[in-house]
TrEMBL record:
Belongs to the ROK (NagC/XylR) family. It comes from Catellatospora aurea. Pfam families: MarR_2, ROK. Residues 21-63 form the HTH marR-type domain. This is ROK family protein. It comes from the Bacteria.
Length: 403
């Protein structure tokens, strides 16, 4: 039996080189074949062959000539990808979001649907998620696009094979969501994946957010739960089992309120959006579980804008607790920026000052050049957008659609 390194198969080498050219055009379009060859080190004949292949696959297209060069005008290349789309779905306690983007990153669809995740059984919830996925796939197909893949983001611990091991705020345990969605879609010819929502949201921020391209970035989900998606030295931090970033279950106050995970005083039990609503709007306590948090968040914003002392005091206290969590992340990971997402965004004018004050007080490193804390410019579909972007990453890595 042969052992040791084996020579690369020609098809593997070509797939790798196709991905090199595709990534170059994504980052430098419009560009010419000569520029690709000069920068990548591939010879001109190879580049011409690779570009012809990518044009045939409808991944690149020619866009005219440029005369801003010495010698003959060059034909310029840009991403095409219009026949393709990638789909992401984000699951939250009170809503679902579906996003589809084409290969160039242009949004094809963006839907938000109410979702009684807090009141649904795992089977009911999975059925609703699969139904939304099926509708999104059908819409993409009706536009004569080919679906490259679908990724679902869930607020919980997700195994590499798509099993939601635990999602406390949804009441899920050991839900094989990938298989359920796969079956609902009739075992489609494209990959279906499931991942943690924060991991997907930070990918969206690193691609499309205000700090796109940052090598050290953290995204905090601002939902019922608080998760952290982490980019460290330009790479997603995945940990040993794929469960990093559970900042919401760091104990802030051992005597604090009970958390859905079974412990007390977790960050999300004190600073999650349900905790904020309970503190600012205690009169809703007798109304039972909320299944749509947006109206309550809007009311919190209204009271804060009106200068309501109780609302302002509660938001300041929550902001300081959130700042404790951010300072832990900052001291451990030294990020350039920490982005607050989800429902934290409309509350950012009142949360950011106490978060920044707490971070300044607890930061170990020098103040100059320390982490910034900002509100996301992406909407509630950040994790869905990140889910679609993971599919595009696979294409960029060489998993190209077949002719």
């Amino acid at each position: 039996m042969q052992r040791g390194p084996q020579p690369a198969d020609f098809a593997d080498v070509r797939a790798t080189n196709l991905a090199v050219v595709l990534r170059y055009v994504r980052n430098h379009a419009p560009c010419s074949r000569a520029e690709i060859a000069a920068t990548t080190g591939l010879n001109k004949a190879t580049v011409s062959s690779l570009v012809a292949d990518l044009i045939e696959r409808r991944l690149l297209r020619e866009t005219g000539l440029t005369e801003h060069r010495i010698g003959r005008p060059a034909t310029m290349l840009v991403l095409d990808g219009s026949p393709y789309a990638a789909i992401g779905i984000e699951v939250n306690a009170d809503y679902l979001t579906a996003v589809a983007i084409d290969l160039a990153g242009q949004q094809v669809l963006s839907w938000r649907r109410s979702f009684a995740g807090l009141a649904s059984s795992p089977a009911q919830a999975a059925t609703a998620i699969a139904a939304l996925g099926r509708r999104a796939v059908n819409r993409v197909l009706k536009e004569d696009r080919r679906v490259l893949g679908l990724t679902v983001g869930v607020p919980g611990l997700v195994s590499p094979d798509g099993v939601v091991i635990m999602a406390p705020n949804l009441g899920w345990q050991d839900v094989n969501l990938r298989d359920i969605v796969n079956r609902a879609l009739g075992e489609p010819g494209f990959p279906v994946a499931v991942d943690n929502d924060a991991n997907l949201a930070v990918l969206a921020e690193s691609r499309y957010g205000a700090f796109a391209g940052s090598q050290n970035l953290i995204y905090l989900t601002g939902e019922v739960g608080i998760g952290a998606g982490i980019i460290s030295d330009g790479r997603p931090l995945r940990g040993h089992r794929g469960f990093p970033g559970e900042i919401g279950h760091i104990t802030i106050d051992p005597q604090g309120p009970p958390c859905a995970c079974g412990r007390r005083g977790c960050l999300e039990a004190i600073a999650g959006i349900s905790a904020i609503i309970a503190r600012v709007l205690p009169d809703l306590a007798g109304d039972g579980d909320l299944t749509d948090l947006q109206p309550e968040v809007d009311e919190v914003v209204r009271r804060a804008r009106a200068g309501d002392p109780a609302a302002l005091r509660a938001l300041d206290e929550v902001g300081r607790a959130l700042g404790q969590g951010v300072s832990i992340l900052a001291n451990l990971l030294d990020p350039e920026v920490v982005v607050l997402g989800g429902y934290f965004v409309p509350l950012a004018p009142w949360l950011l000052p106490p978060v920044e004050a707490e971070l300044k007080a607890r930061r170990i490193g020098p103040e100059q050049g320390g982490a910034q804390v900002v509100a996301s410019i992406l909407d509630h579909g950040a994790a869905a957008t990140g889910g679609a972007a993971t599919v595009l990453d696979h294409v960029d890595a060489g998993r190209l659609p077949r002719l």
